[in-house]
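Record 1 of the preview.
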Amino acid sequence: TNDLLRTRARPTGIEPPRKAGNAGNRKEEARKTGLEGTGLPLPGGSHGSVRCAGSDPQLRHMLDSLKSSKASAVINYGASWCGVCNQILPPFCKFSNEFKNLTFVYAHVDECPETTQNIRYTPTFHFYRDGERVDEMFGAGEERLRDRLWLHS
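->
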């Protein structure tokens, strides 16, 4: 198995087991310490200018906005249960401060199951230019991602 790429392990719509009564606490904790909607504990202030899609309607709205605005953008499709996604998210957030002309979006595949049903590997990065998806990158690697961002900025 390639450590830089994880096959999406759960079928769409199946959630990992959760303890009753702590969902609100988990969301509040993620809001305080991490990128909202990711469930990942990132230090405060390290989120850069990443937008987070926490639901299918939110992600559809962001995609529609990207297409109509014709802005250059990158979408990181990941999951909190994916170790590789957890490793690449902090650099992704950092790069959002370096590549100011790109819009950065994070979409959690379990929070947006309908919109991400065709995402088969996590992480997957989609690159948009002039409203069209122009590139796709599977897996992680900070230098690989930086090079791809440079190419599309």
